[in-house]
Amino acid sequence: MRLVRLKAQAASGNLKLVEAEPRSPGPGEVLVRIRACSLNAHDSMVIGGLIPTADGRIPLSDGAGEVMAIGESVDAFKIGDAVVSTFFPAWFAGNPTKAVKRDIPGETIDGYASEFACRPAHHFTKAPAHSSYLESATLPCAGVTAWSGLMTHGQVKPGETVLVLGSGGVSLFALQFAKMVGARLIATSSSEDKLAQLQRLGADEVINYKECPAWGRKAKELTDGRGVDHVVEVGGPGTIMQSIEACRMGGHIAVIGVLTGFSGDISIPAIFSNQIRITGIQVGSRAEQASMIRAINANALKPVIGQVYPFEEINDAFADFDAGKSFGKACMEF
Amino acid sequence: MRLVRLKAQAASGNLKLVEAEPRSPGPGEVLVRIRACSLNAHDSMVIGGLIPTADGRIPLSDGAGEVMAIGESVDAFKIGDAVVSTFFPAWFAGNPTKAVKRDIPGETIDGYASEFACRPAHHFTKAPAHSSYLESATLPCAGVTAWSGLMTHGQVKPGETVLVLGSGGVSLFALQFAKMVGARLIATSSSEDKLAQLQRLGADEVINYKECPAWGRKAKELTDGRGVDHVVEVGGPGTIMQSIEACRMGGHIAVIGVLTGFSGDISIPAIFSNQIRITGIQVGSRAEQASMIRAINANALKPVIGQVYPFEEINDAFADFDAGKSFGKACMEF
Amino acid sequence: MRLVRLKAQAASGNLKLVEAEPRSPGPGEVLVRIRACSLNAHDSMVIGGLIPTADGRIPLSDGAGEVMAIGESVDAFKIGDAVVSTFFPAWFAGNPTKAVKRDIPGETIDGYASEFACRPAHHFTKAPAHSSYLESATLPCAGVTAWSGLMTHGQVKPGETVLVLGSGGVSLFALQFAKMVGARLIATSSSEDKLAQLQRLGADEVINYKECPAWGRKAKELTDGRGVDHVVEVGGPGTIMQSIEACRMGGHIAVIGVLTGFSGDISIPAIFSNQIRITGIQVGSRAEQASMIRAINANALKPVIGQVYPFEEINDAFADFDAGKSFGKACMEF
Amino acid sequence: MRLVRLKAQAASGNLKLVEAEPRSPGPGEVLVRIRACSLNAHDSMVIGGLIPTADGRIPLSDGAGEVMAIGESVDAFKIGDAVVSTFFPAWFAGNPTKAVKRDIPGETIDGYASEFACRPAHHFTKAPAHSSYLESATLPCAGVTAWSGLMTHGQVKPGETVLVLGSGGVSLFALQFAKMVGARLIATSSSEDKLAQLQRLGADEVINYKECPAWGRKAKELTDGRGVDHVVEVGGPGTIMQSIEACRMGGHIAVIGVLTGFSGDISIPAIFSNQIRITGIQVGSRAEQASMIRAINANALKPVIGQVYPFEEINDAFADFDAGKSFGKACMEF
């Protein structure tokens, strides 16, 4: 099989495919033929060295494929099952603990940039029933993050309003999940073209934040002055004050990303005088992935696929990904 | 104006319209021209004497109409607003207290079987933006009950499965809300005709409980053996054991009605060995009604209207209602 | 080592100690020298054949002891650690699933009536820091059940009132946890002697249910007519209607046991007109056991130990247990 | 009666008592003889002009006293009842709305710096059963804020660890509530004398933050490296990064105050990589005040009273309060 192993001194742009031999699954393990991976900011930071990893690590947290062989005492899957990886294999359900961070595929343990992966069975869940491998591969990081922010922490209800910032992977899933649950959806972008695409995906209202720098107040006006119920906050210091401005009294902000920088000036009285609830989200548990997949099955949801690359073009894939131009989840096929 | 006043010795079938003069709204009050009412089992029990009430009481808990005049210091409404009554005007939000039972229109205080009603402004919320008066009038009792059972107590998520029993008012709202929130919906009925109507409204699966007396197990099978996540239990002793049988481990049963009788033999080990959660629901708060109406607005939901009667035919309306033959919410127009 | 193995045809009273050789721990396993076990109704039903089990099964779900050896890749424990077993080793956290029922020590897998137990490390948690082995052994079934009922499902707050029925193992833990959390506690018993003991343990009010058959109403009166917030319901059909009567509007009943029989006549309108919340509890997860143990550590709580037997007297222990005369948790020492 | 009315141009230090005539209670109103008030930062900001108010406003949000007369249709109180004011009289229960901010005694409506107050009955709750007027007067702002932060939003459990910053009014209540609920309590101060007083009140661990500027990490170490479960954050920008550092994965920070300034540099990745939950708290609802008072009654809790001034010395009282030297809640007696 072919796979990618990172060198400690590696930088993006010089990932090389090497040959190796797949192992046979031991007790509790499954051998999965990986058919698709998706690209995430987390992967990019590992490959670029911003997040340290071990020498020889196989990158990429998100993979989907087909079970080729199963070891002893595996009853969750059978040969031929379509499966998808989980971001935190040791986080089964409930609240997170420090321990779940020990096992992150593509960072602290081997990931899925490999034609075959032999892993403990609990590193996978079943894939959605009617999804392609490409579609399934978009779910573990971006999909579960949006699900956790809106469903677990947000408990979004029909008729509430959700504000998503931009059109990155998490924002697109948040848009789709918000519409699935009967919520109203406001989306922002600086590109008229992307705003049009967001509307085609179901956004009820869109705001061009370049033309409307006070987009927080604008979003609030779009709710008759009541304020939005939830913000999926991917911007960080450059956007969070506008996100707070957009919120209703008691509104919820799922803090997920830092596209505008790591830290910045934040007003504390704005948080308590509006009784804002901020939840820091980092992906989610296996149980949340399973719930999300049930929802995808029941609603025949189609993840938004962006540019697709063959495995051999992994360097180009990350170069394009880092440039951030595509709409929809960038993926690789094997 | 014309209205109905119950006599202590009254029984259904002899309701008479009488003439009276509407009052002008005092401080904090509004005068509403009632344009439609809906009929509920609760009203029928009050009229029939099963639920005691005061001599001269105006019956009916659910009314919708237009604000004709407002008293001093009313800022929630203005003249011309379309409004709808609330079942528990003193239950603003949060958990119920005994005190909220003191004010139940049509039972402990005057209801809406009247061409005009002069009441404190907090006895109403705004009606849905695009609903007719008839549609709005279906909401306070049946709509809020279904909303509270599924949304407040059930916290239904997309991809979960909801089981509704029969096609009464609460069950139809539960069906519509479950589909609105992206859930799967299983419905039962003994009539093939009603099953077909339930499917047209969005039921994913239907079960004829006359042909399949073990409909609880059948519902569980329809979830690949996992069990349903929520049951909207309107049957009571004759259905609850099947409802428990239908549930997944940790499933939720919203107990709402007793169509099959008041009490009966229930197995306790079935409750704890499946870790079932049972919530007794009696309508809900003003805040829940407002949330439900936001959801109705956002999703342009149309309540299912059944037979509609002119106000003069209130006796016929209740005779038909008690016979239970209609599909959809029975209403009166003024 | 000595241990007990059940025969398929066995009945209580003829348990025999046999000799066997302990295994060495494999990867992920620990070898624990069991120093104490507690007795639970669940064990009694397995031994008596009411709950079926496999031939040769080692009974008892609750054991505490010392880690003697650890296998490869075990990092949760080290040699010498005091540990206590968990009732559902496969239930890590969050909501229950059917799968957690596959592994129940003393029923579907081997339990702890054995001088040594070699098990996967996740079958144990650390014991409380200052508890004896006897005290620790009382926790997995009765302690976690009370914790789950009051803390996870009840979310008991200081100043709320908790009603416990009788003085069985779960009721005593519920009493202690309720007082630990600043709640008021009402306890019932038919024995004046036990009522005095319950008061010594912290019960604020006690009711002799033999002298006061309407103890539900009595409990409600003891809350100035508001009703209790939580009932820990161990009686089942013979007590639940009084438990409902005791509750405040919106009150919570944790259904845990069936000391008065398996099924009986229950009034459904009493549930919904008081908006009662009933939660079926069957022990709880590993995360709940860990939370409970943190609480025991922080509050230096001492479980109430009843009669203690040497391992050799296991038959006498269960004979006395089934007669139900003791106050406090019956245990065995090795 | 004597009372204080603010002048638009007033500043602290020139409050004057003036004479006025109490009104008789109208329908729904009660006349309360105010016997004690407490001083809060909110009052100080209104008096000092930082929070704008109307000309002639009677300041102070927190008052306790005795019901002297009741108007028509008041059934919540009777003459002679000891009552205490609420901070948001229009916030009955459940989630906050913008509307609750319209009625804030001492800011948007008249407060309690007055020997008598004639107000709608729902502006008060019953006082704790065994508290003095002074003790009751400490509750509406500081007590309810701590209760809401820990109990409503934090859902603190026994055995969890709570970190409180300094020894202000909210922090002392948080300490007392945390101990009431069986939690561990870590407190900080820069004064050894205050640390000793915090320990006498029940703090399990104390940290002198002047000697230990990395008090966040220190607090985490005091939990064996797991991190605290809750922080009651009164410092704002100067402390919040240490508060985040102190937290366990998934920990909760109740953001309540800004003693160190209004805004500052905050790291967003620290929030999401530790999955921190931040809740902005601004006092709470009437239902929360009632729950807190039930807890105070059940646990005979004594609020910590600091310096007490006669009403005539209101200027001195605020001068001392603004200097911030006292330990315990500063109050005035009438």
Automatic annotation (TrEMBL), chains A, B, C, D:
<dbReference type="InterPro" id="IPR011032">
    <property type="entry name" value="GroES-like_sf"/>
</dbReference>
<dbReference type="Pfam" id="PF00107">
    <property type="entry name" value="ADH_zinc_N"/>
</dbReference>
<dbReference type="GO" id="GO:0016491">
    <property type="term" value="F:oxidoreductase activity"/>
</dbReference>
<dbReference type="InterPro" id="IPR052711">
    <property type="entry name" value="Zinc_ADH-like"/>
</dbReference>
<dbReference type="InterPro" id="IPR036291">
    <property type="entry name" value="NAD(P)-bd_dom_sf"/>
</dbReference>
<protein>
    <submittedName>
        <fullName>NAD(P)-dependent alcohol dehydrogenase</fullName>
    </submittedName>
</protein>
<dbReference type="InterPro" id="IPR013149">
    <property type="entry name" value="ADH-like_C"/>
</dbReference>
<dbReference type="Pfam" id="PF08240">
    <property type="entry name" value="ADH_N"/>
</dbReference>
<dbReference type="InterPro" id="IPR013154">
    <property type="entry name" value="ADH-like_N"/>
</dbReference>
<dbReference type="InterPro" id="IPR020843">
    <property type="entry name" value="ER"/>
</dbReference>
<feature type="domain" description="Enoyl reductase (ER)">
    <location>
        <begin position="10"/>
        <end position="332"/>
    </location>
</feature>
